[in-house]
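Ligand-bound model needed. acetylphosphate.
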Amino acid sequence: MRWKHRPEGSNWGEFGPDDELGRLNLLTPDKVLQGVAEVREGRSFCLSLPLDYPGGNALNRLRHPPRRFTSGRGDKLNYNFELQRINPAFTDVVSDDAVLLYTQYSTQWDALSHVGALFDADGDGVAEPLYYNGWRAGEHIRGPAGHEDALEGVNAERLGIEKMAETAVSGRALLIDLQKHCGHERVLVDHARLQQIMLADGVVVEPGDMVCLYTGFADVVLGMGRQPDAKTLENSCAVLDGRDPALLQWISDSGLSVLIADNYAVEAYPARDGGSCCAALPLHEHCLFKLGIHLGELWYLTELAHYLRQSGRYRFLLSAPPLRLPGAVGSPVSPVALV
Ligand code: UVW
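Prediction:
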């Protein structure tokens, strides 16, 4: 056993001592069939932004747009390369490219190895850096092998994003339309407001459902044409109040399998003042660290949300596997909704 004590309100151990999937365990074959039952018109929606949005690094100064390049091939580049250069009989023209991609720059999944916390799980009176289910920083989620400032060698040997990919992440999902009720104003949505909105729209969350929050933030991002203004981003659209204990309790009780939004961090970041203790990202701590709930961020939900509004529906089939990229702590994703 890796831990003697688990964090208050966590589900560590409940899906097995070595579990790395968390609430994805609730995305069962029955949930896939429930999702398939929502496909009635044969329409599909791409739920990804173009991956070079938001543009620049105003949203997060540590994350940069994708950089694509190609390799050399002899004295040429391997791009529009005519194979007759190596054999005059060949007629093929070939292009290859590579990409340097910050895995959480645009439409993304957070792996369970993305955010952990300091917690005294072994009872020695000293808090240690841990992730979901007690997997340890430095041992299971390894840092750079060499000196402190080395940039390479990071590897999530446990809780890597490939574990999520291997489940195929498909099943019934639903959308809560915060934008319809809050407009494009910056609104902190707590438990009471969320329940009011869900009640007004007749939205019911059942265990295993994948929950999407449409706030309109991705529309604001798209409207800025890859040249985002930091102030506008900070002041736009609804965000969840991660400091509201009732909201966190609802996430625990609802049984939702994953939580997704079209905004930056699902929750307000920075969060409301939490006094002298606590996580900077309390909803991240609650979901990724305590409950094993993967978070989707910066998704593009607009066209789906408009369709659901017009048709008086809120459920759909979602398929959203991340890249099967071993050891990564996040991944770009091109999710597909089917109705
Ligand atoms: C923030 O950086 C605020 O959130 P995330 O890392 O989940 O994108």
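The chain has a mean pLDDT of 96.
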